[in-house]
Amino acid sequence: MYVVGDYLMTTLAMVFFNIIRFEWFVTLKWSSSLWDFLMTPPVLRGIIFIPLAMLIIYYLSGYYYNVTFRSRIEEFFNTLFSTFVGSVIIYFVVVANDMIEERGEIFDLIMCLWAVMFACLYAVRLMITLLVVRRAQYAREGFPTLIVGTSRSAASLAYELNTLRTPVGFNVVGFVTTADIDAAETNIASETGLPVYDLAELNDVCTELEIRNVIVMPHHHGVHATMELLNQVYPTGCAIYISPFLFQLISGKARYGNVAGEPLVNISHPGISAMTACCKRAADLAISALALILLMPLLIGIAIAIKCDSRGPVFYKQERIGFRKRLFNIIKFRTMYPDAEPDGPALSAPDDPRVTRLGRFLRKYRLDELPQFYNILRGDMSLVGPRPERQFYVDQIVKRVPYYSMLHTVRPGLTSLGMVKYGYAMEVDEMIERLKYDLMYLENMSMLLDLKIILYTIRTVLTGKGV
To answer: Residues 122, 76: contact at Cβ < 8 Å?
Structure first.
C-alpha cells in the first residue's frame, strides 16, 4: 500500500508541478497550450518515469525498511527529507534548462516542487498509517505474537498487551514452553486462556499462525540458557523482542525501546538506522552485479585453470549459517582436492596438504572468494559482515561464548573486520578471538566503516596476504 500510494501520489505531484511550471515559470513559444506542454515527450516521460526513480530514493531513505510499527513523527521527517532530496535532483537533472527570466526564480521553483511533492506524498502516507493505527486501536487487530516463556511475568505481560485500552499491534496468541519448565509455571500461562506450545514445534507454529513477533523472556537458568532460546527463535524469521536489561547483559551495550509501556528491544535488526540498512543493501546489489559482469573474464579463466590443475568440480559449495540462522550454500572456487574431509569438518592450516597447487595461489590473493558475489546478489550475504561459519563450529562457539548469536542479526559478509584485522582462524579458540572484532563491527556499523573494511580488503588482496 505504501509503495503503490507513493508512486501514484508522486505522479500526481509531477502533474501539478508541471501545471505550475508552465503557468508561472516557463515561457515556451512552441507550446500553445497547457495540454500541448503536458503531452510533449520530455514532460510526459518525466511524469511517467520520475515517480519510479523517486521510489528508489524513498527506499534508500529507509521508509520501507520496517513498516510494522510506524512512528508518525519519523514518517513526517522522513517524507520531508526524501522529497527535498528528490526535488533538488529533479530540478538539476530535468528542470534546469527551463527558460526562466530571472535566476532568483530558481529557488522558488525548487521550493514549489518540494511543497507539492511533500503535500501529495505525506497525505497518502499519513492516511495509510492512520488507517493501520485505527484498525489496531478500535478493531482490536494486531500482529500475532508468541511469548517464549511461561513464568508469571510472561503471563502478566500477555495480559497487559492484550487488554490495553489503546492496542499497539501486539496480539499475544500463545506461549512457548521450554524443555525443563515445571508444571506450576505452565499452569500460570494456561490460566490466561491462551495455548501453550512446545519449543520443538516453534517453527511450525509460527508458520501456521503467521506469527510476526516473538517475545523472549529471560530463562531462569541464566544468560546461557536464554541465548540457547534465541538460537532457536532466530530461524523463524520473526521480529524478536527482549528486555533492555537482558540485551545489555548479552551485548554489553544499552539499547532502549518501548512497547505498551513495557521496555522491549527488537534484536532481530542491527542497531543502525533504516536508511543505513537500505543503503547498505542497495550497495550490495549494485556492486555485486557490477563485479560479476566486469570480472567474468577472470572468473572464466580461473574456472579453466582449476579444471586443468586437478580433478573435481570448479566450484565448492558448503552449508553455512546466515542471517537469522538461515542455512545457505556458500560458493567458492575449489582450492582443495575432492573428499578433503573424510573424518568430518576440519579447518585449514598453513602448508595444508589438502590444498591444491593452484588453490594456494587463489587463497593467497583470496580469488577463491569471488563467486560469493553471487551469494550477495541472492541476499545470502553482504559485502561486509561477520564471516559465516558451519553449524559444527557455531555449536562449539555458542557453548563457550553465548553472545556469538548476536552476529546472526546481520547478513554474513564476503569480508569482515575480523578478517582484515585478525585473518583466517585455524581453530575454535582463534574463532573466538576473532569474534571481538566482529562484535566491534556490530556496535559501530556504518557505510563509512564498510568502506574502510573494503579498502583494507583490497590492500590484502593486492599484497597477497590472504593466507
So the answer is: yes
290 contacts: CB under 8 Å, gap ≥ 6:
none
Q: What is the pLDDT of residues 173-196, one digit of tens each?
A: 889 887 655 554 556 666 778 888
Q: How far apart are CA 110 and CA 88, in angstroms?
A: 7
Cα 358 from chain centroid (whole Å): 36
| For helices 72-90 and 105-138, angle between their N-to-C axes, nearest 10 degrees | 150
On whether the CB atoms of residues 61 and 275 are closer than 8 A, the answer is yes
CA distance 354 to 356: 6
Name the least confident of 118-127, 170-179, 191-200, 252-261. 252-261
Contact in structure between 9 and 124 (CB atoms under 8 Å): yes
Cα–Cα separations (whole angstroms), residue 192 to 175, 186, 195: 10, 11, 9
If you search the block for the grid coordinates 508444571, which residue do you land on? 183
Given this structure, which CATH class describes domain 143-266? alpha beta
CB 334 within 8 A of CB 306: yes
The structural domains of the chain, with segments of one domain joined by +, span 2-138, 143-266, 274-463
User: Cα separation of 450 and 443, whole Å?
Assistant: 13
Q: To which residue does cell 537469522 refer?
A: 324
Q: What is the pTM of this model?
A: 0.81
DSSP assignment of 148-180: E--SHHHHHHHHHHHS-SS--SEEEEEEEE-TT
DSSP 101-163: S-TTHHHHHHHHHHHHHHHHHHHHHHHHHHHHHHHHHHS---EEEEEE--SHHHHHHHHHHHS
Backbone phi and psi for residue 410, each to the nearest 5 degrees, phi listed first? -130, 160
In this structure, the strands spanning 327-333 and 315-321 are: antiparallel
CA distance 175 to 452: 44
The single residue listed with the C-alpha cell 561464548 is 401
Q: Which residue has the cell 583494507?
A: 456
Instruction: Please tell me which residue, 434 or 463, carries the higher pLDDT value.
Output: 434
SS (H, E, C) 349-414: CCCCCCECHHHHHHHHCCHHHCCHHHHHHHCCCEEECCCCCCHHHHHHHHHHCHHHHHHHHCCCEE
How far apart are alpha carbons 71 and 78 in whole angstroms? 10
Question: pLDDT for 35-77, tens place per residue?
Answer: 887 888 888 888 999 999 999 999 999 999 877 667 788 899 9
Find out whether 250 and 229 touch, Cβ atoms under 8 Å.
no
